[in-house]
């Protein structure tokens, strides 16, 4: 594998049916990787798989809820079988499904958010990393969030989960580094995706836009996240582990 490329590698991407997940999967394929695509929406996964194959790479589709350990184990097994192993895991599945003040946040909303954004990356990595260890190399890239670095009104549940994910990333790096496995995080700021449409007009959304001044003058695009993921997954980042690469247009500068 050459520095900066992923030729000869196989990657697994969760949340691959969404805007950012699709872009990450395609960017990995453009860098030379075969790609396993994991999410709950089969039609969207198969569309992305066709794009990956159109780039001359293999694609494996695994329909799964990444908060369910049995489904995760089955998905990892399928991808390992179809792509001859997994060298890179990108834990992209995540997000906040609602906005609410902390005192109005219901337990079920808290639990679902933590399960998707913190527990799921643990489950996926736990299932895939043993295979990496047997081969003596591998890379885990977790997708965090700017609100995991800065508390945000109406998103305490999400901030707590994403902050926890950053510490989980560092713990992975510490424990698995001696086995040849690197673990890093990409921390996006405000990224234009279809998911934000549900929050337009809400007070918390207005606060989100007001609180984050972006020196580069625009929200990010899904493709802006994909490039840093490829970098951290590749040998160009061979001596980078336990790091969090912020991709926010300078909002935290």
UniProtKB/TrEMBL annotation:
Claim: Disulfide bond is one of the keywords in the record: no
The answer to whether the entry has keyword Oxidoreductase is: yes
Q: List UniProt keywords, sorted A-Z.
A: Oxidoreductase
What the entry lists under Gene3D superfamilies is as follows: NAD(P)-binding Rossmann-like Domain
Family per similarity comment:
Belongs to the short-chain dehydrogenases/reductases (SDR) family.
Q: Which PANTHER family match?
A: 3-OXOACYL-[ACYL-CARRIER-PROTEIN] REDUCTASE (PTHR42760:SF133), SHORT-CHAIN DEHYDROGENASES/REDUCTASES FAMILY MEMBER (PTHR42760)
This chain's protein is named: SDR family oxidoreductase
Q: Which organism is it from?
A: Amycolatopsis acididurans
């Amino acid at each position: 594998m050459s520095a900066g490329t992923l030729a000869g590698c196989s990657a697994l991407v969760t949340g691959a049916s969404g805007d950012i997940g699709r872009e990450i999967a395609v960017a990995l394929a453009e860098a030379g990787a075969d790609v396993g695509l994991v999410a709950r929406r089969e039609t969207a996964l198969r569309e992305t798989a066709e794009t990956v194959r159109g780039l001359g790479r293999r694609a494996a589709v695994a329909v799964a809820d990444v908060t369910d350990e049995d489904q995760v184990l089955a998905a990892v097994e399928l991808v390992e079988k179809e792509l001859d192993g997994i060298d890179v895991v990108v834990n992209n599945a995540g997000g906040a499904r609602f906005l609410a003040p902390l005192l109005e946040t219901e337990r079920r909303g808290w639990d679902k958010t933590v399960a998707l954004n913190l527990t799921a990356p643990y489950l996926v990595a736990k299932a895939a990393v043993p295979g990496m260890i047997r081969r003596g190399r591998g890379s885990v890239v977790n997708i965090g969030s700017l609100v995991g670095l800065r508390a945000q009104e109406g998103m305490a549940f999400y901030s707590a989960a994403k902050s926890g994910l950053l510490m989980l990333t560092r713990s992975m790096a510490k424990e698995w580094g001696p086995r040849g496995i690197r673990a890093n995080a990409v921390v996006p700021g405000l990224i234009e995706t279809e998911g934000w449409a549900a929050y337009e007009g809400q007070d918390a959304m207005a606060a989100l836009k007001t609180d984050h001044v972006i020196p580069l003058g625009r929200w990010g695009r899904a493709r802006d996240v994909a490039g840093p993921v490829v970098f951290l997954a590749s040998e160009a980042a061979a001596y980078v582990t336990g790091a969090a690469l912020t991709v926010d247009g300078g909002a935290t500068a």
